[in-house]
Amino acid sequence: MATPHISAQPNDFAKTVLMPGDPLRAKFIAENFLENVKEVTSVRNMFGYTGTYKGKEVSVMGSGMGVPSISIYATELYTQYGVESIIRIGSCGAIRDDIKVRDIIVGMSASTDSNVNRQRLNGCDFAPCADFGLLRKVADTADKMGIKINVGNIFTADLFYTPQPEMFAQMEKNSILAVEMEAAGLYGVAAECGKKALTVLTVSDHIKTGEQTTAEERQNTFKEMMELTLESVL
What we know:
By secondary structure, this protein is α/β, with parallel strands linked by helices. The chain is built from 7 helices and 9 strands, in the order βαβββαββαβαβαβαα. It has helices at residues 23-33, 67-80, 132-145, 167-173, 183-193, 215-220, 223-232; strands at residues 16-19, 35-41, 48-53, 56-61, 85-94, 104-112, 149-156, 178-180, 196-206. Strands 5-8-7-6-9 form a 5-stranded mixed beta barrel, surrounded by 4 helices. α2 packs parallel to α5 and α3 crosses α7 (223-232).
């Protein structure tokens, strides 16, 4: 049953997969939040695990960085392993003054400079969005847990080191909350496959102020986002 990029066997993945970009963050979540954990894939060191959270079966797997990488893994999970929902849990850079480092952002939609979704609609602008049921569950769970979240449009960038920094002011003017590198690709794959997707992010750095977290913090912390997402899939 192995695919070119995943070595798992049939039924190794739960119906819901949490997908951080960093495979070491996937390992951290599996080791610290899940019970009865089994490693189900490690091709290219892109670790994937399945276990239970409060009795609910759930999987967690890294996606790598960028639209192409997450698109490959999401497509194989949706089409070959029976996965119904993928929730990206990752980091982002804030661009608005009212959003601070370590705040949580939920991507209702994802603008992008990638051409990937135009290819899905014969060159026309295609705007895939998050699954409303998943988004509502996360929002309701956040209310119950007393966690503030920011819900809105995010921006998926192809380049981490952009040659057009002036774009950030345009994003802020158009009410974009933050910048990351995967959501638009994930939402496009989910739409194409008739599946569900959502993106939940923790602000790791602020583009305007320069404040940022360390790589170790991004790998091993952001526990509030992890707990919120896990509670939402129960």
